[in-house]
Write a structure and sequence with these properties.
The complex is a heterodimer of chains A (580) and B (277). Chain A has 16 helices and 21 strands. With 580 residues, chain A is of the alpha/beta class. With 277 residues, chain B is of the alpha+beta class. Chain B contains 10 helices and 7 strands. Classes of the chains: A alpha/beta (580), B alpha+beta (277). Bound molecules: flavin-adenine dinucleotide, iron/sulfur cluster (2 copies) and FE2/S2 (inorganic) cluster (FES). The site of one iron/sulfur cluster has 13 residues of chain B, from helix 8 and helix 9.
Chain lengths: 580, 277
Amino acid sequence: MSDGGIEHHDYDVLVLGSGGSGLRAAIAAAEAGARTGLVCKSLLGKAHTVMAEGGLAASLGNVAPEDNWATHFQDTMFGGKYLNNWRMAELHAKEAPDRARELEHWGAVFDRTPQRTMSQRAFGGHTYKRLVHIGDRTGLEMIRTLHDKTVHSDVEVFMETTITRLIKDGERVVGCFGYRRQTGELIAFAAKALVLATGGSGRIYKITSNSQDCTGDGYALAFEAGAQLVDMEFVQFHPTGMVYPPGVAGLLVTEAVRGEGGILRNKDGERFMERYDPKRMELSTRDVVARSIYTEVKEGRGTPHGGAYLDVSHLDPDYVKRKLPSMYDQFLELAGVDITKEPMQVGPTCHYFMGGVKVDPDTGATRVPGLFATGEASGGMNGANRLGGNSLGDILVFGRRAGEGAAATANASGAVSLPAEAVADARAEIEGFLHGSGTENPFHMHRELQKIMGDGVGIFRDEEGLTEAIGKLEELDARVANLRAPSDRLDYNPGLQLCREVRNMLTVSHMIARAALLREESRGAHSRLDHTGYSDYWGEHNIIVEGTGAHDMSLTPTPVVKRDELEELVEARKEAEKAS
Amino acid sequence: MSETIDLAHAPGPRKLQIWRGDLTSGELVEYELETEPGMVVLDAVLEIQRSQAPDLAVRWNCKAAKCGSCSAEVNGRPRLMCKTRLDHLPADQPITVEPMRAFPLIRDLVTDVSWNYRVNKQITPFTPRENLKPGVEVNAKGEFLIDQTDTDRMSEFRKCIECFMCQDVCHVLRDHRLHDRYYGPRFMMRMASLDMHPLDGVDRLDQIADEGGIGLCNITKCCTEVCPEGIHITDNAIIPMKERVVDQRHDPVLKLLHRTPNKGRIKPPPRSETPRL
Ligand SMILES: Cc1cc2nc3c(=O)[nH]c(=O)nc-3n(C[C@H](O)[C@H](O)[C@H](O)COP(=O)(O)OP(=O)(O)OC[C@H]3O[C@@H](n4cnc5c(N)ncnc54)[C@H](O)[C@@H]3O)c2cc1C
Ligand code: SF4
Ligand code: SF4
Ligand code: FES
């Protein structure tokens, strides 16, 4: 490879990621007249978004006519424990209905009401039935629709291409570097504006619902390029993942199961949510349900495989098969359980990253010129805890905005070029993974990392565990420079792929552990056993992570970004909560 | 509470024969590993990759039977590796895992499926009919008005996760290599699902018959048998479309009228060519 050439491409806007946010951004950028490219690690249509099940939250008011954007905004803020970026929560609530209708016009097909409009289902934390859905495969419908729209939108797509570096010219991001997975050929992109739509980082935990792609690449790349990240301590553990058999542990059991009437019980048959949130019961927010299940298990009331029972066997079997077909299949195939007859066993699984790259809500711009972020890769919209259904809305609303923002920057910019030195540097990193003198095996280090995070930075945290985890992460820091792929072949080399991913995951793990240590309170998805209550100070502050490299990471509490005109809505919701 | 795993299939050591090689040469290589209860073929392949064969090439992403990446031929039959449990395969013989055959090999279990993407790009996307009737087909907010029954009908086809296993077994592609004349079952069905949309404004019949090559399908139903989503590709998508093509192309009256486009739909310009493999 060392004397081979580097394939080169030039775009106005380059989008990294083909999940919902990346596709929507690419469509928007192309529509705005930018020459647009899209790069993704997997094949088109296979991105993590394809797994989304339950639905997309949008206050269409088709089932509950009382619904409106203001209530959706309030629900989102309440779910996020008021740490959300207010403007993002506002834009999301206001624009999600338009994005849902737009998908329909692009060919998406959703379940209907008797009035033949889009049907909406109940989900935790949403006041009204609000989730647009099709059975339990809403993500697939979205992906296929956006995928089709993209390939007919003059967007050039680079599948199975992994980006390992962002490239800067002075202060500005001007492109990126990586390789084609199928051949190992090196590839460089110059771009006037670059959108990170790289998703989350669930693979830092062993038990996760996330796909293989979710290794936090965007968080690490943005950090290295000088961007700020926000809310990284908030990792959502979805309350219901499969717990058995071991091979599928972590696989998601959609919240739609509870939305459609599923009941949680402990091994004694007790409907334990009565003790934790008698008002919302199974449809309480995810942080509460996850902690409740965890506590039941910890206190000895768990199921044989260490979870809780989730039961839909009291519902009409045909209804279950129609509304939850993939859950029915998943349990029958993988666990040998017929959910229309027997309860499922479920427990918490790492699911979603509330935190991410800090962006301007209206345009998706980061503080680094030329760099934009959107979707799960960006942070702020969901505060301390995301409501189910708010991600599929988020990725459309802010995907579009980031695509337009990037196109506007690109259209106003002259040509850019990649500094040779930065390209040589990026190339050297990849060659080091293949031919260097390192001896660290990425597969093994990945396991170690997952263990550290699972043990010390899981659903419940305390100072001792976090400090210990950070110490262990620092030990990995010393070893990460010695990563080398066990094989030096170029074509479809899984070890090469994992080398850079492990590095990214390590950077992300540091952010999470350190922010979790700093936030001395329990709020939303962040639960400290040694600081169980809310703190007034932390209720007003987000943690911003930035630095110049892995060894120089600084964390700064920063006041929550509010908006005067929304104050009344937020206060009204806080009052209403106090009253009940 | 009943145990979820059949104890007759207790975990233990298992042998896997995995196809290793590239376009130039290759062979089945045997690996042995300890299994866990409920393990799927993909778990086993990844464990072998982690501990015994670090350069083993395999494509996967969701490990939840939702993305359609991990298609391979397991014991000679196309399956999603992440949905196939080891203990559902005969215990007394090694499990063979081979790449799909209808597509060019990249390496080991990974094939080049890009042809499918080129075909997909040829298909005219959903385009709403002009002059949708207010209050009947579209409401004041611009939302479509569609029956749940229409949704259910389309939904069967829209469950497709593009694993391309139906393409892999279709003899028109697999044996006769007519990739440049037939879009294959996946894309026949894709066109059926678009055609079925009550508000679609495109007359797709010519593309289905000509560039798509529906006539090459001789209803063997192999595609339907392997579909992990249980889609009745042949019965519900291909056969009805074949019938329509026959009706509309060969009906003497319609022929005389030069076949008016269906349901006031617009005919797209003919496609350049069916993509080559
Ligand atoms: C099982 C499951 C069910 C869910 N259900 C729901 C639901 O019902 N409602 C809801 O709102 N949310 C749901 N979610 C959450 C939601 O699906 C995700 O948060 C959302 O899809 C994220 O989309 P995204 O576009 O930001 O990123 P992703 O879909 O994760 O896409 C990331 C993309 O970036 C690419 N990429 C990453 N790194 C690189 C790199 N280095 N180089 C090149 N490309 C790269 C990847 O290949 C991929 O294409 C669910 C999640 C799961 C796992
Ligand atoms: S039924 Fe038709 S499309 Fe399906 S495998 Fe047979 S020939 Fe191919
Ligand atoms: S129709 Fe079935 S077999 Fe064919 S690609 Fe789709 S899911 Fe796979
Ligand atoms: S890995 Fe996604 S279908 Fe098997």
